[in-house]
Amino acid sequence: MSPRRNDDAQERELADEAGEDAGATAEAPGTPEEAGAGQDAPEGRRGSGRLRVLHLTACAVALAVAMTAGAVVLGSRDDDGMRTVSSAPGLAPELLATGSLASGISALQTHLKAQPKDYNGWSTLGVAYIEQARTNGDPSRYPQAERALKRSLELRPGNDPALAGRSALAAARHDFPGALRYAEKALDENAYNERALSTRIDALVELGRYEDASQAADQADTRRPGIPVFTRYAYVRELRGDVATARRVLKQALSSASAPGDVAYVATSLGQLAWREGEYGSALKYYAQALRADKVYLPALEGRARAQAASGDRAAAIRGMEDVVARFPLPGPLVVLGELYEARDGEQDRAKARDQYALVNAWTALARANGVNADLDTALAAADHGDRKAALRAARAEWERRHTVHTADALAWALHVNGRDDEALRYARRATATGYRDATFLYHRGVIERATDHKKEARASLSSALKLNPGFSPVGAKAAKKTLTALDGAE
């Protein structure tokens, strides 16, 4: 067979793979015990955990960007997340905006079977898979996205939509040096590629290079002002403590949004900002606006449940978070639901909470099997609800890769739960050094300051946490109040 026929056969094989059932998912990592969870659960509850892992497999889980702090949404929903800035002809990416994401992908699959040499079609399919992994919670789409993007680059080396797609894929997998590298390559080919400009900001933020991220946001705003850039510009400002500017920019973005996906995305960003500031009424209004635009938008459903819990409506919060977890059992919602069960403390609630924490480990195994670095998620969940030594190993590994406020906080807390408070203190202080306002960071710092006999500072940190966001955590807020009362009683 000639080389030409080999190429054609490869293209047909890839196109056939592209046409696989869009509901296919990765194989489950096993029971919670096999994934490293549920070690101390009673046998009856382990059976329940196995059923939940089967449900996890059916839903498939993915690493969303919110991950750290719930604020960076990788591969944002530009025109329903589908538009790339194309520098060459081919299948228009806007085709994906003509219906649902699934129907757009189906149209692409059909197109690529007929025209397997359309490099732009392959790059668009790769980006669509990344978006599907984020919105549908299916990390098995990441390897498929990688193959599609590689094929695009084989057909047309250096095409900027595919390079920008590789950047978004690397960011989704938490390979932020790779995300930055591919973003720069894409921008070398097309300095106005919106996806590359946006993902470069994401990568710099997640590498802890905040000054560089600020400059990148300014440059992106000059080159391609629009909702993907505005939301990132706002987050960079919030990281530096400039909440007023962040809020103003997000409001401007919301006023200019028209596509339902854009409205849901920006309104949710405003809701998250309001929640972090303890403004629960405003947060709920923004989440309602987001859900009017997209009634199943996961970040808005999750945010609404968090705001309901913080407002004292625990029953509604549990119902809402159960709905979120039933759809997509991701680490953040799983931990919050577990803590809500703990706070309710009913007859079966502690067992239910353990089930949620066990699923975090199952999710981690599944994510890693699809190329996602999940160390930060492991550190945050395991420190409070799992293997503390594993939490510290994961936090140290993540700190070696990137120095951000979120990795500093995770490492500080992992050190604390392992009894290493003197070492933890410098990381807790570093987590709050940029001016970023996060009640969890302040709570962690306060607890560590108390443990190191810095009582005055501990009282200030804990008071600030509760003043900023008194309902920041179903369990943590209660512990913060108890610790502060103990400090006041020691006077």
Q: What's the number of helices? A: 24
Counted beta strands: 0
The shape is: globular
What distance separates the N and C termini? 86 Å
Pick out the low-confidence regions. 1-5, 20-99
Helix content: over 70%
What does this protein look like?
The chain has helices spanning 3-18, 43-59, 101-114, 119-136, 141-155, 160-172, 176-189, 194-206, 210-223, 227-239, 243-256, 260-276, 280-293, 298-310, 314-327, 331-344, 349-369, 375-385, 388-401, 405-417, 421-431, 439-451, 455-468, 476-489. With 491 residues, it is an all-alpha fold. Helix 3 (101-114) packs antiparallel against helix 4 (119-136), helix 6 runs parallel beside helix 8 (194-206) and helix 18 runs parallel beside helix 20. The radius of gyration is 22 Å and the shape is globular. The termini are far apart.
Helix-strand layout with pairing:
Elements: H1 3-18, H2 43-59, H3 101-114, H4 119-136, H5 141-155, H6 160-172, H7 176-189, H8 194-206, H9 210-223, H10 227-239, H11 243-256, H12 260-276, H13 280-293, H14 298-310, H15 314-327, H16 331-344, H17 349-369, H18 375-385, H19 388-401, H20 405-417, H21 421-431, H22 439-451, H23 455-468, H24 476-489
Protein traits:
491 residues, mainly alpha, 24 helices, 70% helix, 0% strand, globular, disordered N terminus
Compact description:
With 491 residues, this protein is an all-alpha fold.
